[in-house]
Amino acid sequence: MKNNRLIITSYRLPFAFETSSGSTTVKNSAGGLVTAMKSLDFSESAEKPVWVGCADFSRRTWEKYKHLVNDDFEYIPVFLERKIQQDFYNGFSNSVLWPLFHYFTTYVDYQERDFIAYQKANEAVSETVAQLLKPQDIVWVHDYHFMGLPRLIREKQPEATIGFFLHIPFPSYELIRTLPQKCKEYLLTGLLGSDLIGFHTTDYNIHFLQSVQLNLGVQHKIWKINYQNRLIQSDAFPVGINYSLYHDAYDQPDVVQEREALRNAYKGNKIIFSVDRLDYTKGVMQRLDALEAFFRQYPEWTERLTFILVVVPSRDEILKYGERKVMIEQAVGRINGKYGTLIWRPIVYRYGSVSFPQLVALYTACDVALITPIRDGMNLVAKEFVATRKDHRGVLILSEMTGAANELSTALHINPMDENEVAEKMRQALEMEPEEQARRIAIMQRRIKEYDVKKWATSFVESLLNMHTIQQIEPTP
Ligand code: F6P
């Protein structure tokens, strides 16, 4: 892969322009995807990797300020008409695919115009990619926004090397079945334009293969699909984190300072912590129900426990997200009113983002991390929490409905719907002996240290190149 050039496509470009008091600056994203892409070794390629994504800024802003953007990648923004962008992102991507793929069928709001916008957006990005493509390039398409893209690129460049990775669950065929036939075909044949299709877990892969078989009548054998004289591989590649970044942050001076401030502020109390994007899939309401059940069943914890709940704003133009915010705020107020005392609040709630040092301080100051999604493709918060615990303390309570539960085998697993089970596991976690905490954390750390984000990205690209080579040597009859 050293000689190849990488072309990445994702909905978001890994930076944002911020304007305040008349001056514009650039904020680089520190997300997992950027770290993963940077970890790949393309050192012998004569050209810089390229990143194609949708612009959330105007052409004018781009021309004026592109010189401020980092030069880690060559960035190519695709400018969509405003209405198309909205219907594509808020509409089909986040009001059809997102709820459906997370099993929230009643939240699906299918509108024909949104599906048309989705196709137009995929077409626009495919044209940009096809124009750039050279024979040695590797195209890596990310996520549910661009499920149509692999086929569209292949139609324009039949010999291209194309990989696709889905960052959310791929649901059971029964869910895919509910989509209009033209959508199912568009999405599935879109993915089959790839040489390699990656998912977080084997279950998601099996669901995908079943959907392909039942919808398109296409057979598969040992993770290989024979389709239109091409052989396509689909497999599980569980995404990891930058382990050392989180692990080493434990001793960073600003983290130490933030952690001490937190410990002082909650002296004498145990801390349970959670952080999520504001999303109905994350199970925040169920978590609050479980907390209420806990205080009902174990009143001896009154004035001895604080739950720090951080909710990060997300997709706020979509009604279902705004509604959720109101529901969470009402539940927090109700629980604090009912169980709090004149000198203590059970829940400390923050709606907003936290800095990296604050996040690591929260991960390392808490006694328990409580992660309860109803569905989650992977859940990197769980892995980050485990990685930060250099002190080998802390207990992870983790929903069995996350992709991460497969790997984090010594977490206390819960079903997020079962408030009594969650309350009981909270008690168990709060009373767990330090030796047992250390044993559990050490097992999970070994796993996520080895399968980190670099391993994820490297093994995906190596498998993609292998698959493409097999294709060239043994074309399927
Ligand atoms: O998990 C899927 C995902 O699209 C991530 O890639 C992304 O960080 C997250 O959801 C947030 O989504 P958005 O880009 O819509 O804010």
From TrEMBL:
Origin species: Larkinella bovis
Top-rank taxon: Bacteria
Portion of the parent chain present: 1 to 477 of 733
Name of the protein in its database record: Bifunctional alpha,alpha-trehalose-phosphate synthase (UDP-forming)/trehalose-phosphatase
Family: Belongs to the glycosyltransferase 20 family. In the C-terminal section; belongs to the trehalose phosphatase family.
